[in-house]
Amino acid sequence: MPEIKKERIAILGGGVGAMSAAFELTSIPNWQERYEITVYQMGWRLGGKGASGRDQSYANRILEHGLHLWMGFYENAFRQIRDAYAEWNAKGYQPAPFWKNYTEAFVPRNYDVAMENMEKKWRPWVLLFPQSRWQPGQDIPGLDAPLDMWDLVLRMLGMMVVAFLGAKWQTGFRGWLLRVVGRILLWIAEHLGANPIVRWTVRFLGSRVGGPWQLPVLHLLGVSEHRARAKARPKHHETVLNLLEQFAAWFESDRKSKSKRADDARRLSVMLDVGVAVVRGVLEDDVLTRGYDFLDDQDFLQWLGRHGCQEPDNPITRFFYDACFAYRRGRDEYHPDLPAQERMGLSMGAGAVLYGLLRLVGTYKGGIMNVMNAGMGDTIFSPFYLVLKNRGVRFKFFHRVTRLALTDDRRDIASIDIAVQAATNQGEYDPLIVVNGVPSWPSEPLYGQLKNGDALKKHDLESYWGTLPPVDRLTLQRGQQFDKVILGISLGAVPYLCQELLAHNERWRAMVDRVETVKTQAFQMWMNRSEAQMGWNRPLPILTGFVEPHDTWCAMDHLIPRESWPAEAGIQQIAYFCNVMQECTAARCPVTCTPLHRAPDCPIAEAIDDPNFPAQQDGMVRHVAISFLNRDVRIVWPLSTNPNNPNEFDWNALICLHGSRGERAFDEQAWHANYEPTERYVQNIPGSTRHRLHPAESGFGNLFLAGDWTYTPINIGCVEAACISGKMAAWGVSGSPGFIYGPMGYPQPIDQIRYKEQPESSSAAKTA
């Protein structure tokens, strides 16, 4: 019997999408009989935008590109990392796992804060979410049908009911009675919602109750409708909307009749304003039958306004925009006469926000957000690397892809050019170190393993601005070193690597032109004072919606035991701040500068050729961070100022093992500008979703795509989107897996995931 020829799969890049694809391909039974898989990675570590490193020269502290969170609705990502940990433990791969179960690698965060500016004073709006009884990545018994958009809307309304019943705006006997009866109704909804008598009673009550009783009854109606899935539900949709509108109108009237506008009442009013607009928009735009992708042709805030939202730009929506770096060109604040939304550059597709927001609040398991119990490299990419390597995947570090070339007929990838950045002294490069029992990636290459290691220290081996000549150049040929290619390198690098593809494929040009990316910035601080000593007397938060330029803060104190601080340092706090970064200093720069699109007046248009550009960008981050600490951080840390100068941050609060003083103490912290093409965050600009390429349909026969820049059900730059994309790319290569996981873990066939074109005559298309 003739030997079956193995297909050689070249995976380019080592981010979440690439690792997801490799994991799925190697999960096929007897995959070694079908494939040979090689990962080609620039530099010394995996991770892409999620890479982290240990600073071995400075207490093994964790250095990240920014703040990395895993949302509780990441059904696919959590299941993959669950399986990776299980295999790592079961087969005893070395280094030994540092946690016995994947759930131990994450810390749920249900205490979130959206900052709001009221009457020129910042106030924290606490968003406290209940802990789910299900763990992320777990199956839920009895889930016999997928959750559709209406189910997600009802779950959002349920969160509003919980907030309503928990608020203190209603006092006295009526407030007590409302909370008691409301909780009884919630119990009935949870346990008896499918009962026909309950459903009839609820519909009867829904047409007769008024005032504060409408919202709990509305929730009971919604849950009853969801539980009775076999019955036709469209006739109830308008009933739900009418009840919600009546309650919102009563609530506004009742709230305004009181002289004191309590925070709880005002905030519930904002939630109702958004909630009514969401329900009305879902019904008026027929999202229930048409899907939500077509809404991405308009901005979410504009969509809310079109459906009656009085205050679309509010702390709730801004929380989501900030979390998704949804500021076009990193903010354009040069025209103060423009509307606030346009001036700030707020821009994100309505469909992506709607689906993402409903998934976030309605389908999370465990914590609504989860931080990792070490760096993302340690927690995610160490297990992936060790499992995949032991399965038989080959890793080629220090292999920088420089060009993809086409066959003569322009149908396939013919060759891949690679610059070899470094050679090992002997054998394969071993990338991991162990820090406090944690297999970790160092923040710099392990130079002792490399030829001419001392000379390499002068160069950044992860930079496109690197000036180091390669030690070798390779050209991988189709039919020799590879048969199929999975491009897992992020979108920002496509114009540099895929110029031939762009020249011969209109869809690729449209993708690069319309799917935009943005620079981000981050800094980390290690302090000898706790949050309470800084004046933050609340639980440790994930906080966003704050002042610019650093609108997001996350307390990361749980990482202190994972690092190696000496006792005399007295470390008590770790803080991460991040944000988008201004894209261009040219007034109203019309584009994101790439080799294909360079604004003639843009001072950074030729930056890719400027060896000074990286230092300039990092210098900008340093300057902005110091200004932020001196001017703004006192809003959340009122005791952080210098006792001798209330207009200056108290630099003595920073840990400085090298003895720096004053403002120089900041130089012993960590900051980073994410300007590299592979680091730039992929946005969802209105009108861009239709131009994303399907991971299994690149337009070239042997090329597949993996990353959060491709078309998936979640077209937002996040771990889950990248993971889904990797699974879809693996399906394109092999036909496996046949499905991804949708809301609450229900299987969704991959062959049904397509962008659905809408008739041009639709009302939404006319408005967009």
Task: Please outline what is shown here.
With 768 residues, the protein is of the alpha+beta class. The protein is 33% helix and 17% strand.
Question: What would you say this structure looks like, in words?
Answer:
With 768 residues, the protein is an alpha+beta fold. The chain folds into three domains: 254 residues, FAD/NAD(P)-binding domain; 215 residues, no CATH class; 155 residues, no CATH class. Helices cover 33% and strands 17% of the residues. It contains 22 helices and 28 strands. The strands form nine sheets. A seven-stranded mixed beta sheet has the order 8-7-19-20-21-18-24. A five-stranded parallel beta sheet has the order 10-2-1-16-26, covered by helices on one side. It is globular and about 80 Å long.
Distance between the terminal alpha carbons, to the nearest Å? Answer: 61 Å
CATH class of the largest domain: Alpha Beta
Here the CATH topology of the largest domain equals: FAD/NAD(P)-binding domain
Strand content: 15-25%
- Our count of domains comes out at 3
**Number of helices, counting only DSSP H or I runs of 4 residues or more:** 22
Shape: globular
Helix content bin: 25-40%
Please state the second-level CATH architecture of the largest domain. 3-Layer(bba) Sandwich
Strand line-up across the major sheet? 8-7-19-20-21-18-24
Query: What is the name of the CATH superfamily of the largest domain?
Result: FAD/NAD(P)-binding domain
User: What does the radius of gyration come to?
Assistant: 26 Å
Element layout with pairings:
Elements: E1 7-12, H1 16-25, E2 35-40, E3 52-55, E4 61-64, E5 70-71, H2 75-91, E6 106-109, E7 111-118, E8 121-128, H3 149-166, H4 172-192, H5 196-206, H6 214-227, H7 234-256, H8 263-284, H9 287-290, H10 300-306, H11 315-323, H12 340-344, H13 350-362, E9 369-372, H14 376-391, E10 394-396, E11 399-406, E12 413-420, E13 433-435, E14 438-440, H15 453-456, E15 472-477, E16 484-487, H16 494-497, H17 499-504, H18 506-514, E17 517-518, E18 520-527, H19 531-534, E19 542-544, E20 552-555, E21 573-580, H20 613-631, E22 641-642, E23 645-649, E24 670-674, E25 681-682, E26 703-705, H21 719-734, E27 739-741, E28 747-749, H22 763-767
Parallel strand pairs: 1-2, 1-16, 2-10, 7-19, 16-26
Antiparallel strand pairs: 3-4, 5-9, 6-9, 7-8, 11-12, 12-15, 13-14, 17-25, 18-21, 18-24, 19-20, 20-21, 22-23, 27-28
Helix pairs in contact: 1-14, 1-21, 2-14, 2-21, 3-6, 3-8, 3-13, 4-6, 5-6, 6-7, 7-8, 8-10, 10-13
